[in-house]
Amino acid sequence: MASTCTSWSPLPCGFRRRWLVLKPMQQGALHAFFQRNPYPGIATRERLARELDIPVFRIQVWFQNQCTRQLRQS
Amino acid sequence: MASTCTSWSPLPCGFRRRWLVLKPMQQGALHAFFQRNPYPGIATRERLARELDIPVFRIQVWFQNQCTRQLRQS
DNA sequence: TTATAATATAATGAC
DNA sequence: GTCATTATATTATT
Lengths: 74, 74
Fold this sequence. Notes:
homodimer, about 70 residues, mainly alpha, Arc Repressor Mutant, subunit A, globular, disordered N terminus, DNA-binding, nucleus (chains A, B), DNA-binding transcription factor activity, RNA polymerase II-specific (chains A, B)
C-alpha cells in the first residue's frame, strides 16, 4: 500500500485539515453534477475545481462521501 | 450519525450539569473573539478556556449557541 | 416571559 | 468505516 499521505493531500500526516463548509451554491452544483456522473475522472474533477473554486482533493473527498452516503439510504 | 454523547460532552446521557452563568467580562471576551473568528479550533478553544477560566466544553457550547443566535437575527 | 446554558442528534467534512 | 466539526431542535434554568 502507499503511504498514508497520498499525493492529493497537501497536509502532513497527523494534521487534520481545517474544516470548511461548502457554500450552498457549491453544494448545489456538486449535487447536480453527481446525479449525472457519480464517478468523474481526474480531468472532470479538475474542471469542477476551477469552476467552483474548490481544491481538487476536496472535490475528490466530496464525491467519495457522496457515494458512500448515497448507498446507505434505506 | 454521531454517537449519542459526542466527545465534547463529558457527562453521560441523562445527566445535566449545573447551570453556570458567565460573568460579564467572560461574555464580553467571548463576544469580542466571536466577531473575529466564529469557529475556533481546539487549540484556540483551550487557550480561551485558560484565559477566561471556563471549561473547554462550555467554550464549545457557547460558540455553538452563539452561531444559532446570530442566525436567528434575520 | 425572555435570554441563554445545556443536552442530544443529524448532516457532513476529513481521514 | 470512523472521527471531528458544524447545524439544528429541544429542554431547562436564571
